[in-house]
Structure formats: structure tokens, C-alpha cells
Amino acid sequence: MNIDRIRNWAARLPFFYGWIVVSCTMGSAVARQAAAVATLSVFLVPMTAEFGWSRTGISGAVSMGGLLGAVIAPFIGPLFDRHGSRISLVTCALIVSACTAALAGVETLVGFYVVFGISRMMFSTPFDLGTSSAVTKWFVRGRARAMALLSTAHGAGLALMPLLAAFMIEAHGWRTGWLALAAVVFVVGAVPQWFFLARQPEDLGLAPDGRSAVVDESGSEQDETHEVAFTRAQALRTPALWLLMIFAALVYPVQAGISLHQAPYLIESGISPGIAATVVSVFSLCIAIGGLAFGMNAHRMQPRFALFVGAVMITIGAVLMGQVVSPALGYLSAALFGLGLGGVSTMLPVTLANYFGRAHYGAIRGIFLPVQVVAQAAGPLLAGVLHDASGNYDLGLTVFAALAATAALVALACRQQKVA
Predict the structure, then answer these.
(1) Residue 97 DSSP one-character state
(2) Which residues contact 102 (CB under 8 A, 6 or more apart)?
């Protein structure tokens, strides 16, 4: 990438170049969803029917990939602070595209574990760090709105990828479904990022949010420009970071566990596979709507209250999902669950950036992500084990509702603190 060429483009644009960066991260967020549990859930029934794998067995690949992502997160987090997200996001897209194509030829559970596990590892950590770090570097005042757009793309990808997969599976089989997803990942996840992604506004002679690089003498502007800047060590000494990690440990097993097993649960409840796929898409679309709504209204409430509201909605969604007897109730539970998850997914990285600053965001997020990723890895495995032990998903949904309700209470206790 020629930084001088990018600088010239940015100078001629009638809007802030940060929005180009956000557009690139949105493409990465869509590409990332090829390895999402909601996408895998569409393949779960045809693949297990062909190979005879158990729900627990196939869920283990999700967990393994998540654990690998947790291991590498603390080491790669600081790299995003120093070098930016461009190379990492392009590499992630190429790897996920290759792994997704390889899934079309998989014949054994071991082979599935290898290729999906690597793809899920990219999903769990580098994609997350790359997209959120890029947005955080380019925005301060507009951070929540920019992150809301990223979450919207996340939800849109979750809606589109399962739909595309379901269409291709029905028309040409599940192997062609994986190949179609691989092509999408390459086109939207690697090409624009290679040409247009820049590390931070200062590299282009800009300032965050498109403000003038020259700071006014007014107190308010001075305060906004010189935001908090916790190091990773300082952040680890605050109760706020630990409470946010506990929140993640409670809420993300619910997110991943229900996402993966949502379609099979609905089918077991008497919903047709086609309707179940549309319910999953409504859930994904509501993630986008929830992320946008929470992000655009973030200035109206403290971040911890936004996390509380999101966790409450997830709780209600999980409770209602356990009562599904008709498509209408399936849509309602999926909508509430998706809206709450969209809010949490948007506001957690915003809260981390607002509480601890952007200077060391990658390093701090790199410590935070293992907790989130391990929680996401545990959710599908827990749901699969409880299903195989009890013969249905009722117990798992009850456990998930209890975890989300506890997370809501933890969020209320998480207050912002000053640098020691």
C-alpha cells in the first residue's frame, strides 16, 4: 500500500477517510461470518445426516477453534497497536476462504476439525481484533456510531451467509454451499482491505473523527482530543476490566450455544427446515438492527446500562425460545435475542475503548478476548452435551437464560475509572 497515494485520496474526499476504513471493516465483518456458528448451524443437519456425527462431536470443532484463538490473542493484540489491521485482515480472509473451500471436500471428522478449527480460530481473534482496533483508532466522539455500522455489517453477514448457504444446499448440496461462501469471503474480505485500509488517521495527517489536527484552546475540545490512555498493566489493575471480562464469560456461552443449535432446536420443535433457516436469518438481521440502535443512541446512556439492557433482552429471548411451539414464537424469541446480542456486541468494544482509550486498545482487547473466546467455545459444547444427555434442548436453554440474567447484574456494577 502506498501511504502517499492514500493520503492524497483522503485529502480530496468530501468526507472523513475514517468512513472508508469503516467500510473496509464492514466487509471483513461479513467475510468473517463464513466461520460463524449461525452459518455452521445450516450445515449441521445435512452433514450429520451424511456422516453420522453427533451434535457434541461437530460442536467440538467450534470449541477447539475458539480455544486456539484464545491462546494467540494476548500475543497478537499489541501488533494491531503498532502495525494496524490491514495485513492481518487480508490474511484472515485468505485463510478463511481457503478453509471454507476445503470444507467442501471434507470426508472425516478429523478433517472437519482441522479446516473448520483453523477458520474458527481466525474468526475468534484476529478478525475481531482487526475490525474493532481499526474503528477504535479512527474514531473517538463518533466511535459508537462507527462501531454500530460494524455491528450492522456483522448482523447482515450473519443473515446473508446462512441464507446463501441454505439456498445452495437446497439447490446443489452442502459441498457447493461451502464453495459459494469461500468465494464471498475472498471478494468482500480481502480485496478492498488490501487497497484502502490505513492504520490510523495520524498516518494520513488527520485526527480522529475528522477533526483538525490543530487542537482548539477550548477546554471541551482539549478534553476530547486527549482521551484516557491506560496501558494493559494499568487496565488490569482496575475492577472495571475484570467485571467486563466476567460479563463476557457469562453472556458469550449463551450467544454461541444458541446460535449454533438454533436451527436444529427449531426443527426438533416441529418447525420446517426452510422456516428454521428464515428464523436464523431474522435473528441475524436483528443483531444488525440492535447494534445500530444501541450505537446510534449510545450518548443517551452510560455504557454499563446499555450492556445491562442488552443482557436482559438476551435473557428474555432465551426464555421464550424454550417455549417455541410455532413459527411466530420462534421469530419473536429470535428477534429479542438478536436485538440484545447486537447491543452487547456493539457496546462491549465501545465500552473498552471509552474506559481505557485507543492507544493500547489492541493489547487490552487481546487480554479481554481470550475470556470471550473461551466462553464462546464453551457454549456450543455445553449445549451439545446437555442435548445428547437429556434428548432435547430444554435444560440448555434454561442454563443459558440464567447465565444471561447474571450477566445483566454484573454489567450494572461496571463503572469507569481514572488512570492510577
Answers:
(1) H
(2) 115
